[in-house]
Amino acid sequence: MTGGMIIRDAHFPGRAPIDAYGNGGFRFAGMSHRGSILCLPSGIHGWEPADPENLGEEDFARVIAEAAEVEVLLVGMGRDLRRLPAALRQALRDAGLSSDPMSTGSAVRTYNVLLAEDRAVAAALVAVE
Fold first, then answer.
1. Those residues with Cβ within 8 angstroms of residue 97's Cβ, 6 or more apart along the chain or in another chain
2. What are the transmembrane regions (predicted)?
């Protein structure tokens, strides 16, 4: 036994509605997570985009890997709506993903509605304070 702390990638292996957001994180499935998250068919994953103000294709590698199982991708951009960079929009389109950028609050609400309708929805949610 090493006695050290083991740090694992944050992952909840299922689909769950987002119960709350703010204070730099999210609450779902009776748990809380500090930081941004990806809500995918494979579960909810901790997400650390290189620059939340300028998202890039590399930030969406896990999303693109699961694109075949996703009908719509909601992108919570933080407090304010911003356009996705053109190169990222094209990469998502090339993967067959329809992306819809919006504020994180709007993305959480829309994600919960589509999840309740059992739609093939995914969300990339930038945490807000």
1. 63, 64, 67, 70, 72, 73
2. none
Cβ neighbours for 25, distance < 8 A, ≥ 6 positions apart: 32, 33, 34, 35, 127
Instruction: Report the CATH number that the domain containing residue 72 is assigned in CATH.
Output: 3.40.1230.10
The model carries a pTM of: 0.90
- The parent domain of residue 32 ranges over 11-125
Give every CB contact of residue 51 below 8 A, 6+ residues apart in sequence: none
The alpha carbon torsion through 29, 126, 79, 122 (nearest 10 deg) reads: -70
Task: Give the span between the Cα atoms of 98 and 6, in whole angstroms.
Answer: 37
> 5 in a domain, yes or no?
no
**Domain assignment of residue 6, yes or no:** no
Q: Which residue, 28, 55, 15, is CA-closest to 47?
A: 55
| 60 found inside a domain | yes
